[in-house]
Amino acid sequence: MAADLSQIVKAYDVRGVVPDQWDESLAELFGAAFVRVTGASAIVTGHDMRPSSPGLSGAFARGAAAQGADVTEIGLCSTDQLYYASGALDLPGAMFTASHNPARYNGIKLCRAGAAPVGQDTGLAEIRDLVERWSESGAPEPAAVPGAVTRRDTLDDYAAHLRSLVDLGSVRPLKVVVDAGNGMGGHTVPTVFAGLPLTLVPMYFELDGTFPNHEANPLDPANLVDLQKRVREEDADLGLAFDGDADRCFVVDERGEPVSPSAITALVASRELARNGGRGTVIHNLITSRSVPEVVKENGGTPARTRVGHSFIKAEMARTGAIFGGEHSAHYYFRDFWNADTGMLAALHVLAALGGQQGTLSALVAEYDRYAGSGEINSTVDDQAARLAAIRAAYEGREGVTLDELDGLTVTSADWWFNVRPSNTEPLLRLNAEARDEATMAEVRDEALAIIRG
Fold first, then answer.
1. Which among 41, 73, 299, 422 is placed 20 to 30 Å from 375, CA to CA?
2. Which residues are tagged catalytic?
3. CA 72 to CA 86: how far, in whole Å?
4. Is residue 183 a contact partner of residue 242, using CB atoms and an 8 Å limit?
């Protein structure tokens, strides 16, 4: 199995098919390697509802304890609940989940104390090297004194911390439909929302890592259909959809229409700036809507543009001391949550904003949804570099047009912009376009696609 580690150790996490690509014996080695690389004397672990998760998490704990580290197991949890435990307990952490991937997959998201991310450049490559060596030559020498493994329930403390970060005192009664997708939202939502003046309509709250109803990936519009229908049937004020490990949250308005994550980013940014006296830096990746930096500036803040991906967002948040960060993929990062992402905290902000006034959600977010966007369009290409070069050649030198290569190629004009990024894992180019109106966006989108697809 050692030869397959290159397939499962990704840029920011471990992820692969169980037991074909990895199993409990490898998980035990990952636990030992995590302790060796971090030098930790104590760690915290948690896991999602996938059938393989308890066994993998337990094996990891055994490996870590054998190297002398005390292990606090928090058991079933969302990924942001594990980040909470890592931050509140000031311990390195390991979360066993494959997020929105199909049931046969599982993985590990690792962090240092205070929920600081572990990726290829921050320890994951060394962890992989150790596991590969040990899987060929045998388990490492155990410590003279093994660590203790104990259990701890953090759900109530996690919920209390989130609620301390949002003023929920003036929320009016709301009817909210929540689609947990049989994922960890079914575990966390009842506790986090307890005591709020909400009529909660639960969908797929049963923890089931085989995902019997639909994939736990709300980024795919097909997986929002059930929620949209139910919001309309129930005449609800809004709908919320969580992914499998419940660290991302998607919002549906009272008409059953999806709310752009860029609009949610702008809404939460305005509220976080208000909490901080109208001052602070807000991070946004380069394919969020133009409305995000506009709203940040209008509310006294400083927008900072970064590449796509949580490692870039978190690094820039740490560098700038940013109060908040958001991505088009519905990842939301908070300084007061150890710079980690938590869709649940974003959901509480939406409930507070909607519940603090009498209007509808669609009317509320219209202020933050100012442009026409294409969404992400993937094209399979033979030569990514050649296609990017063709786009650059087509637009370079055009009057009023600027190009930059922060992440792929971004082409910007006064009334529109588009970005084309190569996939790191597939022969794809990803196009995102935005303009002041739908007709202009369609024109820009179609011209770019014609060049991309040759």
1. 299
2. 99
3. 10
4. yes
